[in-house]
Amino acid sequence: MPFLHLPDTLKKQPIDEDRKPEVKKGKFMFHTIRGLAAAIALFLFMSVALFSQTPRELRFGYWQSGTLYEEEDQWFSIRPYENGLVVVETSGDTDTYLEAYDASCTLLAENDDGGEDLNARLSIPVEAGKTYLFKLRGYEESDSGTYQIRASFGTIRELRLGTWVYGTLREDENQWFSIQASGAGTVVVETSGNSDTYLEAYDLSGSVIADDDDSGEDYNARLEIFVEAGKTYHVKLSHFEDGGAPYQIRASFEPLPPDLDRNTELSRAVPIRLGESIPVYLRSPSESRWYRYDIARAGTSFVVQTRGNLDTILALYDGRGNLIEEDDDSGEGGNALISVKIGAGPVYIEVKEFEGQTGRCTLHAEIR
After folding, report:
1. Model-level pTM?
2. For domain 260-367, which architecture applies?
3. Which of 40, 75, 217, 359 is buried deepest, with most CB atoms within 10 A?
4. Confidence of residue 308 (pLDDT cuts 50, 70, 90)
5. Taking the domains of the chain in order of start, what are their residue ranges?
């Protein structure tokens, strides 16, 4: 085959090594600029999407009224002058949803039905001089109607574990405290004095995790919360009815036992003795604690119950694992109680929580 001669313009030209780095650099700069432009465009798009309106200022302690239309977001802002805790809540018949953001558009907290009825309510710790933004919308796109919204501010006092703190509650006043434990366990918060106190505990997302009115002595409040190591929790102290008086408040801590994981299954049930007050820890909604007792004679009346502020469920099984009896609220408050006549042999007791609660209770068993 004859050799084909290509025109000089189609022949492969030698690469100029001096120009080669410049070509690469130009391509790199082009892609960098294009990427930067895309990032700026995305930021502008997000900003426009988030803030299609000028946020209205929320003044602490004052209700603001408005109307929420279908598929609408309404924005509000606060700028605190000191460090503390801000609570934003709605009121009315509209099913509302709240989201809290910092100035860089980072979502801090969100809430649906934390307030009364279908109203939203959330709390966030804030720093002095920083701006915080709150988005209000209907829970569903079709939700609309009138509403009221309010922001309240509270300074936060540290509640050191094991130390009484003294103070005075004025009329319609809330006082806030922060708690942080070095390890996982149960924190008991209680008041003392002649005031009729009310306590609420919150996690950092603003969700209520426990509340109590009169579980302490006289009209004092007492609640227990399960805490994780290093996390901060907030406690709100208020008067049950209008009025004010001196009070004392204290938080105490009980760490989790080192062998806590040993009885999470029937096969690992822990033997119990009658008449003892056995602490039971429930750390997650799906967790069960198992215990065992050996019945000596047939026809024995066996009574087992829980005590404390945790809403519990009890289940009783025979030696083969067959369910004998189950109970939710036959005990005091939200506690469970089972009383049955039973045959001789081992019985297994399962302690569970009700609707996602965590914390501590005590287990009591006796023969009557």
Report:
1. 0.61
2. Sandwich (2.60)
3. 359
4. confident
5. 56-154, 156-255, 260-367
Q: Please, are residues 264 and 352 in contact by the beta-carbon 8 Å criterion?
A: no
Distance between CA atoms of residues 248 and 246, nearest Å: 7
Mean pLDDT (whole number) for 311-322: 93
pLDDT digits (tens, 9 = 90+) for 258-282: 777 789 899 999 999 999 999 898 8
Distances (CA, A) of 48 to 33, 44, 56, 97, 209: 22, 6, 16, 20, 36
CATH architecture under which domain 56-154 falls: Sandwich (2.60)
The mean pLDDT of 326-355, rounded to a whole number, is 91
Residue 152 forms beta bridges with which residues? 87
Backbone angles phi, psi at 231, to 5 degrees: -90, 150
Q: How far is CA 319 from the centre of its chain?
A: 38
- Given a cut of 60, is residue 48 above it in pLDDT? no
Do domains 156-255 and 260-367 share one topology? The answer is yes
Amino acid identity of residue 297, one-letter, is R
Q: 1: pLDDT confidence band, cut at 50, 70 and 90? A: very low
The CA distance from 126 to 140, in Å, is 29
Token pair of 60, please?
């602490």
Q: How far apart are CA 126 and CA 80, in angstroms?
A: 7
